[in-house]
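[agent] plan:
  1. take the single chain provided in the ticket
  2. run structure prediction with default settings
  3. attach C-alpha cells to the ticket
  4. add a short note for the reviewer (M.T.)
[agent] executing step 1
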Amino acid sequence: MSKQFRIHLVLVAFLLTTSIIGIATAASLAHAWKEPPVAEGSYFDVMFSADGSTVYAGGNQMFVRSWDGTNRWGGRAGRVATMSSDANYVVSAAGNLVQVLDRNGTVYWIRGMGAPIRAVAISTNASLIISADERGDIHSWTGNGESWGLNRSDLVKQIAISPSRSFVVVTTAVGLKYLSPDMTPIWWDNKSGSLDSFIAISADSSTVITSGENRVSSHMSSGALNWMKDVTGEAIIDMACSDDGTTIVLGSQDGKVWTLDQDGKVLWTYPAGSWINGVGVSRDGSIIAAGALDGNLYILNHYGNLLAKTKTESIVQQRSVAVSGDGKRVVVADQRALYGYDLLGEPGLISEKTFTPAPLFPATSPTPGKTTLPITLPTTKVPTLPGTTGTPKSALSPFPAIVAMTGLLLLVRKRIS
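[agent] step 2 finished; step 3 output follows
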C-alpha cells in the first residue's frame, strides 16, 4: 500500500467518522428551568408568546413566566384562561366573572355573566375578549371592558379569534360557527355535528383548521369547506398548526404523531407507542414537539426524523406541549411541574421555506374553575439546571456519510485494479 493511498484512505475515513458524529450530535435538549405548581394540582394548556419570551400555563392554578425568570406570577384559577400572544394580558374565568389581568398579574377589569363561564379567548393585544357561559351566551368585550356584543347560542366548547380580528370561530355542541366581533352570526354549519374540539387559524386568517375525535376539517374564512377527513385510528388528544396552515400536527390515542399538509394529506406518522397527550410546532413547521402519556418528550423535524428525546418525571398532561415560534424553545407540563428546554444544534437546516412570523391563538379549556385568591411569586431568577438531556438521533442528513463511503470504496477499487 503506497504512502499516498494511505493518506487518502485516512482522510476519507476521517470524513466518514465526522459525518456520523455530526448526525448523532447535531441537536440536543438542555434543561433551562423547572416550575412546580404554586398550589395543589397540575398545569395544562401551555403556550408561548409570539416572540418566545414568555410562557403561559393554565390548570388548577395559572402561571406566567418570562424565559429568564425575571417575571413570574400565578395563583388564580386557570382552567378557563389564556394569554394574549403579546404576553401583556391574561383573561381568566372565576365562576360567573370574566377577569383581565396585566403582565404582572394585577387585575385590569372584572365583568360578570349570567352563568358559570366555560370558555374564553383574547386577541393579540387584548383589544377583543370573548367569553361564553353555561347558558349558551357568548359575550364580546373591548380591551377596556366595555360590552361589545352578545349572541345566544348552543353550549360552546372552544373559542378562537382570527389574527385579523375580523371574525371569531366557535365550536359548539352542534357544530361550527363564525361570528363578527359584535357577535353577529356570519356563517354556521350544524352538519359538522359536535366532534370538533380544537381550533387553529392561519396567520393571514384565510384558513380555519378544526379537529375532534378522529376527524380533521379545513374551512375558508368565508366558511366554505376545503376538506373534511377521518384521519387517525383513535381519538385526537391535541392539535397544533404552523402559521401558514401547511403543517397540521395531531397527537392521538393510537400512540402516533400525525402530520398533515394543507390539503389534508398525511405526510408521515411517528410511532411513540404511548398516547400522545400534547403537541406543538414552530411557526414554519420545521420543529415539532410531542409529549406522550409515559412522560417521553420527542422533538422531530418537518420530515418526522427524531432530533432529540427526553423524559419528564411523570405523565405528560393533555394539551401541555408548546414550541416557540423560532423552534428554539420547548415547554412541557407533566403532573408534577412545568419544564422549559432549549433546543441546541442545527435543526434549522431542514427547512428551505421562508414564512412571515405571526401568532396563532390556541383555544382554551372548556371546564370552569374555582375562584382562588391571587398569589404573587417572588421575582428572583430560577436557577438554570445544569447539563443536557435527551438522545439526539438523525438530526442531519445522511448524505455526507454516503458520499464519504462512496469515495472510500472508489479508492479501494482503484487501488485493487
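[agent] step 4 note for reviewer: The CA atoms of residues 33 and 223 lie 42 Å apart.
[agent] ticket updated
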